[in-house]
């Protein structure tokens, strides 16, 4: 129930989905839900040819499951260019992924960024430094006086059987008792590098008990305000006022004006933000003015910034069911919004599918992608006989502002340069001998129409050169009509013939103009499936379905009225694999892994964890990161040595 109320609140806030006042829900919602993202990744020092692996933890500030179902991962270079963008599906606030460090990248300091769409409204994101060395491209400044040190402290709770191991030897350790059966963890085992590693982003922003020492002593605070009409200068009576505090301590308050347009707000929270935003909920910001007065005698805290927030400041809904696609349709001639038009959104591919959405009174349409690993070739078209009269513009979200990011210059010494060269050789050898270090888990494909179709596999019949011949000679219960050089497909429906058109698909693409299919190359068609039932998709009725599948799923639409939508598919779930020398006979295959083990789903119920060392000698570090069930951060480290 609470989740539904939160979503209703979001709809009201952006004034796109609903005009309801939040006052109906004020007894249930007293905070604006703020999401936080944390990344545990295998290393912030990487050589080209290696893989950056990561696990995402996302939750609301009170450690509950997030609203969002997708997290976006970016790597930003020093010129603030995004050189990598990915998105991962969240399951109970958890996700995973990886990124191959290409030899096309220059050596330098990069930023690893993670955020949800809801966080974009506040320009909030996780960020950390990563340093990439490319020995094949740009040269790095060389200084012999660089201090080589490793700053991270070790934890004594990880117990190894010994401190030194031989090559390809099994390493076993037990998880500490305090995290067993009570934590969500990930583990990385990697070779230490002779380089000063900047401290990774800590958990302070997540810690319930983290109270800044710079905040003055808390006392009660009273805020007073008055709301007047800009047009009449008269007070606005009985209006709900939303007051948002944004910062490390985010929360939302609601007050109400009296007969004089006055509202009061008493703040009891500790260590809250110094930024305050106000708005009249459900009203146009151009119609009113808010004046804030403070009783400074009742507080010793710093004065809040007196600013306003309107509905335009929060424009992005969270991906609470999947990725949201929005667009606007206008008439090309009049530029007026196209109202109540059906929009077909087709995901073209071997496992292609479609969605149909309606435009509202502003010509806006929306559709939600809750499928996983969908095709990236996406088209949108107005499902109208005169679709060429309309223009579709996809609405893109505002981008994050990275102008405040600071980047450090890379510098090396002889020891660091030797490490770079050696690791580069290791990568080349490993990449030459191994096919993959992970197994992709593909979700099971469920038929959208279940058993409603009769399938005609064309390889079982005589091949005909035209689709017209195929419909006449092979397909039962379907045909093509020709009138004034226009072709229309039909399906017999409910044991009688009718004049309503069916839905015609090719590789998941909705064929709006049936003329486009007359000249299709028939030897590319694998099968044709026919359904004789009635279907209703978002108020559009179809008498049956004709679904054509090509062998490769690469049908190319020829309609000039379609719009291509650029999407990035979500990262598939992977299970990472590593050598097991107890059961595998790989003695003759070189093993120069510097990443000995990585698991984004470490089972805390497992008493013992094990992995095998490689042919690389030196100091290695076990790093375990995660959160307990009540949201307490966990970070454990242990070093061991591999010798000849």
Rounded to the nearest angstrom, the radius of gyration is 30 Å
Distance, first to last CA: 61 Å
Apparent shape: globular
Which structural class do you get from the secondary structure elements? mainly beta
Give the DSSP E fraction (strand runs of 2 or more residues): 35-45%
Compute the number of helices.
4
- Report the count of strand segments: 41
Could you name the ranges where pLDDT drops below 50 across 5 or more consecutive residues? 11-31, 204-219, 295-311
The oligomeric status of these chains comes to single chain
What average pLDDT do the residues reach? 80
Largest sheet: 5 strands, mixed
Biggest sheet strand line-up = 2-8-7-4-5
Helix content: under 10%
Report what the structure shows:
The protein is mainly beta and 644 residues long. The protein has a 5-stranded mixed β-sheet with strand order 2-8-7-4-5. It is globular and about 85 Å long. The model is unreliable at 11-31, 204-219 and 295-311 (pLDDT under 50).
Task: Give a short synopsis of this structure.
By secondary structure, the protein is mainly β. Helices cover 7% and strands 40% of the residues. Strand 32 and strand 33 form a beta hairpin.
Task: Give descriptors for this structure.
644 residues; mainly beta; five-stranded mixed β-sheet; 4 helices; globular
